[in-house]
Write a structure and sequence with these properties.
Elements lengths: L17 E2 L5 E7 L4 H16 L4 E7 L9 H12 L4 H10 L6 H11 L6 H6 L4 H13 L7 E4 L2 E3 L5 H15 L17
Parallel strand pairs: 2-3
Antiparallel strand pairs: 1-3, 2-4, 4-5
Helix pairs in contact: 2-3, 2-4, 3-4
Protein name: Protein-disulfide isomerase
Family: Belongs to the thioredoxin family. DsbA subfamily.
InterPro entries: Thioredoxin-like_fold, Thioredoxin-like_sf
Length: about 200
């Protein structure tokens, strides 16, 4: 009797979307988990997703600058590992929140904190099981001309302005007009009447 290993396909980060997957506007960020600039940009993206709730989506692609951030590659692998259990975005946020401490044992602990149950998680990290998927993101970024992070693309076009909420909103609203839809209109804020 011959035993065969079950081959389980890995879900790459390019296929993990937050926001509305069928939205007409997609924001893609290339970044790494040790970068303060990327952490700040990630906070802006969180605001953007809230403001354009259901009208845009977001994909994070790994672009670890390992000459500056030696632990960024393993952190990226950890997020992909968490993504296999549907915990990519929880791990993504956790890694940015703990970007000053991204050693192997910390990564295992963070995975547990966000609900990852894979007993082989640490083994997969140590053996670079998800390393090629990080390299695929890096290669895609290089092919798109990414040299520094954070780097943004909106509907496939490079977004070269400062990643501020104001700049994103202006670009997305203009793009929505171009597309002829309300895809880029932010949610209307409810006005509160104050009795006086």
């Amino acid at each position: 009797m011959k035993f065969q290993k079950e081959v389980v396909p890995v879900i790459p980060s390019k296929d993990i979307v937050t926001g509305n997957p069928s939205a007409g506007i997609q924001v893609v960020m290339f970044g790494d988990y040790e970068s303060d600039a990327c952490a700040k940009a990630n906070d802006v993206v969180a605001e953007l997703l809230e403001e354009y709730d259901g009208k845009i989506n977001f994909v994070f692609r790994h672009f670890p600058l390992t000459r500056l951030h030696q632990k960024a590659h393993k952190a990226a692998e950890a997020s992909i590992g968490a993504g296999q259990e549907g915990k990519f975005w929880e791990m993504h946020q956790y890694l940015y929140g703990h970007r000053k401490s991204l050693g192997m044992i910390s990564l295992k602990s963070y995975a547990r904190e966000v609900g990852v149950t894979d007993k082989k998680f640490l083994d997969h990290l140590m053996n670079s099981y998800y390393g090629w998927f990080v390299q695929d993101d890096l290669k895609d970024g290089l092919n798109l001309g990414v040299t520094d992070i954070p780097a943004f693309f909106i509907n496939g076009k490079r977004f070269d302005k400062e990643p501020s909420l104001k700049n994103f909103k202006a670009y997305i609203n203009d793009l929505a007009k171009e597309l002829g839809s309300k895809a880029g209109k932010p949610k209307e804020k409810k006005k509160t009447l104050v009795a006086g």
